[in-house]
Amino acid sequence: MTTKPTITAFQRSPDGGIGLARDTRVRWALEEVGQPYDVRLVTFEAMKQPAHLALHPFGQIPTYEDGSLVLFETGAIVLHIAERHAGLLPADPNARARAIMWTLAALNTVEPTVLDLTAARIFEADRPWAEERLPLVEDRARVRLTQLSDQLGGSRWLDGDFSAGDLMMVSVLLRFRVTGLLDEFPALSAYVARGENRPAYRRAFAAQLAINAPSNGKDRLG
Ligand code: GTB
Asked: Residue 17 domain-assigned?
């Protein structure tokens, strides 16, 4: 039975409210299906404590609690929401399987390239080999984005109507924007913009911004 689920999110997202922390995609899914939810904010320290580790063995956000059900991993959470509400998975079994396929493709085939890129640009930037490695990582990401752009072609969404697959793919592609790579792919930029223009995305974005915007008066260094 679906009650009112509770998700966890950063008490202060390091991204300052640009929506890149992964609670945004879960909020977006909940908004798409019209499911109200509560949010429990957690500090980095609290994420590593037993109470949170009991929900998420890797000590991360987001988590999802609904009655006795506890989930982590955004793919599992978004697909769970999509399975239980209309709007994110098609009724036709084959189309439904393909929407799930695109959700997993976003997470397993596209997202790793942007994680590598972020690591190379930021976390490994001071390593002696960073300058040599960055172009290699960028080129691997470009290959994936080229393939995805070719697949999308002139379509609005990846496979017919908007689905969980698009929600996840747009969420992943948004992470490329700060790297500058998304701008190299006009069709993907337009696809991302279509996602961002959905009222449900706007509500999800606004909800996380209300917590994370630097102007909200919280001490961001505290
Ligand atoms: N595979 C998991 C999922 O999809 O749910 C990954 C979860 C995950 O990486 N969570 C991150 C986390 O809890 C937050 S979203 N990190 C804390 C930790 O591991 O200790 C990743 C994230 C963080 C910050 C930014 N940012 O500032 O731009 C963007 C994305």
From this structure: yes
